[in-house]
Design a protein that fits this description.
823 residues; Rossmann fold; alpha/beta; 31 helices
Length: 823
């Protein structure tokens, strides 16, 4: 169908026919003219049709086509403007990177030169692998090194420092190597100086100490650089002989308090009791709760067994009270100031029993117990059972049937500690122990304050804010405990700052320079910030949220000041290299988390990253590695991890032997390996096991202690203390298991954003996984032989999974003697 033409103007339309009358007149006139030979009629009609009509149509058509072409050509010269821009105005994005986009100047020629120098100066067995060279030569601002057990990371890290300082000319003052403990710091300083000596480079002991630091020794100079804090002391270093020096490192995993620290805790407690009636009220309630005899369900097997002798026990109770009081008198522990001696009677399950005294201030009755230090053979005259057994029956009945406030004095030590508290001598401290739910045992109240506050702050939280975000049942004593903690901790920090010189906890120092307080870092001089420009951190899997916040804030401030911060220096910009192993993260109970290592690129945003996987194991034979990895396989882990045995004895293939707990057999094997000339590491889950095994060690403890330090071959440590060590033969005593559930830690874990979203027991879950990692650490200390002695599951082990449950007797890397004996 031809295209329709556009509407034409009137003058271009062909003429229309005349009306009928006019047309009739025209025809008559035309015929008349034709008769007069004035025109030819047919020609006129022909001319009209062919000329006027057809000419008009053709003219219109030709004119339209010509006009259209001309118009189109002219139209091409007109700019058509269409507004395709987005509505509103443009907003630049936020650059949240912690580093500038730069690269270390490491080219192929420099790599070749360094490799040749290392080949010449280091022995053949110490030559770096391809993966280790990748770590040494990483040129990106951010580098994450996943280094498994026995991966030779220390030597590789030392070579990295050599590259930066010797080959690239970076000033040592622009670098910091961070280790976690004093011991690891000393070991690395020694290794670094030995390496520099091989390259005929001089690095003094002092320079090496300035370079290799713990987190604690690096944060202290930052705080001391601020006005008014030049003489600041760390609370954790009070009482230390090194406290006047900046090198006074504290062990971040040592929770023990010394006398100097405890004195300040007690002084703050005294002042707060006087200044805050609410705090004094809370402490009183906690004291009563702590001292009260814990109730026992009447359906408990012990109650059911002893309720049958209630009447008999009541008949002999007054004589039992006489015997126990005589023992307390003889020990000088009775009477107790603040307790009125009062032999009153109480009805227990329908029978009459006696108490020894009453505390008016607490409105509580007191019963004296049988101190465990007394002879277990003491009996009443004519009695069949010893005193401790009769006393145990009485205590069970009181636990099940007494509805009065009752304090059961278990021993002379507790009574001695209670005296100053009852006498209102607050400077001596509260005088009672408290057990926060989920903790393994009771500790002095102020120690419990320090422990809980430390855990909360390690998670990067403020104590008061965290307590406000927690909730407990109305009758839960932990609700009172944490309210008291919020009052005490704020007062304690003020108390420390008021000392001369001022004192501050390390956690407080890190918080001052964390991401929530960037303005404080802006006040730090360049000279104090510059050493953090090029950071190398070992054991990064054990870092806490508090430390991560400080690191991120420091790197952000360094970038903000660049390039002025490094003016005149060879070392420019900033970089971060972190070395760790998520399978060796075992300090979650202190607030550490492997999450930041496993999510490294998200935690430390950079324009480019390098990831290095060190899978070679230069320590252990293959079966040790396979067994350890099988134990820990159930935990979340980084992809691609599987160690490869590269030691000279890698293919020895002696399986990890697992036994039922037998201290005599363990001792025999320890002595056998020691006499053979092997180095031996004996690891305990509980320090109390050390004494139980000691009698079976055949005197090798004293023998080894008498040898020169460099010739000693026997060490006894806890699992946690053994990280970084190794031995020919390793003996593990005890299983690895998370036994308790911590309501408060589960809550603050969620507040810190750790664990899976929506998991109400995020901390407990993390601890169950950590139990497997602890076993991994223990097993991988062994170079050649590993023996694991575990207790049988019982009422003390509960229903929680144990690491030894992961042992698979079908695998060649295990020799499970427990299964064999049962079969």
């Amino acid at each position: 169908m031809p295209a329709s033409r556009p509407e034409q103007p009137d003058e271009l339309h062909p003429p229309q026919q005349l009306p009928l009358l006019k047309r009739w007149v025209a025809r008559l006139l035309g015929r008349g003219l034709s008769r007069l030979n004035a025109q030819h009629r047919d020609s006129w009609f022909h001319g009209h049709a062919a000329g006027q009509r057809l000419g008009h149509a053709k003219g219109v058509r030709d004119g339209y086509d010509e006009g259209r072409v001309d118009g189109y050509e002219e139209g091409q010269q007109v700019l058509v403007i269409r507004d395709t821009r987005a509505p509103g105005h443009a907003v630049p994005g936020v650059d949240d990177l912690l580093f500038d986009d730069w690269r270390l100047p490491i080219d192929a020629g420099l790599k070749k030169r360094i490799k040749a120098d290392v080949a010449q100066r280091l022995p053949a067995h110490s030559q770096p692998s391809a993966a280790q060279w990748k770590m040494i030569f990483s040129d990106t601002p951010s580098t994450c090194v996943v280094a498994g057990a026995g991966a030779g990371k220390s030597t590789t890290l030392a070579l990295r420092i050599l590259l930066l300082h010797h080959y690239l000319g970076f000033e040592l003052a622009a670098m910091t190597v961070v280790t976690f403990t004093r011991e690891s710091r000393k070991d690395f300083i020694k290794k670094l100086r030995q390496l520099f000596d091989l390259f005929e480079l001089n690095i003094s002991e002092k320079s090496a100490q300035e370079l290799v630091r713990t987190f604690h020794s690096r944060i202290l100079p930052l705080v001391r650089s601020l006005p008014g804090f030049a003489q600041l002391q760390a609370f954790e270093n009070l009482g230390s002989r090194e406290r006047q020096g900046e090198e006074a490192d504290s062990n971040p995993f040592d929770l023990r308090l010394n006398d100097a620290q405890r004195q300040q805790l007690n002084l703050c407690y005294r002042d707060l009791c006087s200044a805050s009636p609410r705090f004094a009220e809370l402490v009183g309630a906690l004291r009563l709760h702590s001292l009260k005899l814990k109730p026992l369900d009447r359906d408990h097997p012990d109650v059911q067994k002893r309720v049958m002798v209630t009447e008999l026990s009541a008949q002999r109770d007054e004589e039992l009270c006489d015997v126990i009081e005589d023992l307390w008198f003889a020990a000088g522990a009775w009477p107790i100031k603040g307790i009125e001696p009062s032999r009153q009677t109480l009805e227990i399950n329908g029978s009459t029993f006696h108490v020894h005294g009453h505390i008016a201030s607490l409105d509580a009755w007191v019963v004296l117990g049988c101190d465990p230090g007394e002879s277990q053979q003491i009996k009443r005259n004519g009695a069949k059972l010893p005193v401790w057994a009769e006393w145990l029956v009485k205590r069970t009945l009181f636990q099940a049937f007494c509805d009065k406030p009752l304090i059961w004095m278990e021993n002379y030590r507790d009574a001695k500690r209670l005296v100053p508290a009852l006498a209102a001598e607050a400077v001596a401290g509260p005088g009672f122990d408290y057990k926060v739910k989920g903790e393994l045992g009771s500790v002095p109240l102020l120690d419990a304050f320090v422990g809980c506050a430390g855990f909360i702050e390690n998670l990067g939280l403020d104590v008061t804010a965290a307590v406000a975000g927690m909730s407990f049942a109305q009758d839960d004593s932990d609700r009172l405990f944490f309210e008291a903690l919020s009052l005490y901790w704020k007062a304690f920090e003020q108390h420390l700052l008021g000392m001369t010189p001022p004192v501050m906890t390390y956690n407080r120092m890190f918080a001052l320079f964390g991401e929530n307080s960037p303005e404080n870092l802006q006040r730090v001089a360049d000279a104090h910030l510059r050493p953090l420009a090029h950071l190398m951190i070992d054991e990064f899997q054990d870092v806490s949220p508090q430390i991560v916040s400080w690191l991120r804030a420091s790197l952000r401030e360094i970038r903000r000041r660049s390039p002025g911060l490094q003016a005149g220096q060879v070392a420019q910009y900033s970089s971060l290299l972190c070395v760790g192993d998520d399978w060796q993260s075992i300090y979650g109970w202190r607030g550490s988390s492997p999450q930041y290592f496993m999510e490294f690129t998200q935690t430390f945003a950079a324009p480019s990253h390098t990831r290095v996987l060190l899978v070679e194991n230069y320590r252990s034979q293959a079966s040790i590695i396979e067994a350890a990895e099988h134990i820990v396989r159930a935990t979340p882990t980084l992809p691609g991890k599987k160690a490869r045995a590269c030691a000279e004895h890698a293919e020895a293939r002696r399986p990890v032997q697992v036994f039922k707990r037998d201290d005599a057999d363990l001792g025999r094997r320890v002595v056998e390996h020691y006499r053979r000339g092997d180095s031996v590491l004996l690891l305990y889950r509980k320090s109390s096991d050390r004494a139980l095994v000691a009698e079976h060690l055949g005197g090798i403890v004293e023998e080894d202690r008498a040898a020169p330090a460099e010739q000693r071959r026997f060490k006894q440590l806890t699992y946690h203390s053994a990280k970084g060590l190794q031995a020919d033969a390793v003996f593990l005593v005890g299983d690895c298991q998370h036994l308790s559930s911590s309501p408060y830690k589960n809550q603050v874990y969620r507040l810190a954003g750790l664990g899976k979203p929506g998991d109400p027991q995020a901390f407990d879950k993390a601890q169950q996984e950590e139990a497997l990692r602890l076993a991994y650490v223990g097993i991988t200390r062994a170079a050649g032989d590993c023996y694991w002695y575990v207790e049988e599951a019982g009422k003390d082990t509960g229903q929680q999974p144990r690491a030894s449950d992961q042992v698979d007797p079908a695998k060649a890397c295990f020799d499970d003697q427990r299964r064999r004996i049962q079969a």
